Amino acid sequence: EVQLQASGGGSVQPGGSMRLSCAASGFRFSVNTMKWVRQAPGEDLERVALINGDSTTTMYADSVKGRFTISRDNAKNTLYLQMDNLNPTDTGVYYCALGRVRGQGTQVTVSS
């Protein structure tokens, strides 16, 4: 059974940083492309970033380019999202995803 558990969310002021983690299990993590997606209140799901199995390819939504960094540790079956220079539009629930499968999300709130 695929299990994805995101953590590391919380509240931060604009301009702040936060690092999300996602513990993965139940599948061959190291060979799969992984994604971070988010859902802001009242908005559709948005793909934030993705990374392929060996970390040679990453892609970012235009809204987060230059501010967010996706990475992974295949030895630990863990996906990360470093978020810098956060702004209120980054507020939402963040999920890690394997294809269309999402785990439990973590809330990120950016507010002064």
Report on this structure.
The chain is mainly β. Helices cover 0% and strands 52% of the residues. It has strands at residues 3-7, 10-12, 18-25, 34-39, 45-51, 58-60, 68-73, 78-83, 92-98, 101-102, 106-110. The strands form two sheets. Strands 2, 4, 5, 6, 9, 10 and 11 form a seven-stranded mixed beta sheet that branches. The protein is globular and about 40 Å long.
- Tally of DSSP helical segments: 0
Name the structural class: mainly beta
Instruction: Give the CA-based shape.
Output: globular
**H/E topology pattern:** EEEEEEEEEEE
Radius of gyration, in angstroms, nearest whole number: 13 Å
Quick summary:
By secondary structure, the protein is an all-beta fold. The protein contains no helices and eleven strands. Strands 2, 4, 5, 6, 9, 10 and 11 form a seven-stranded mixed sheet that branches.
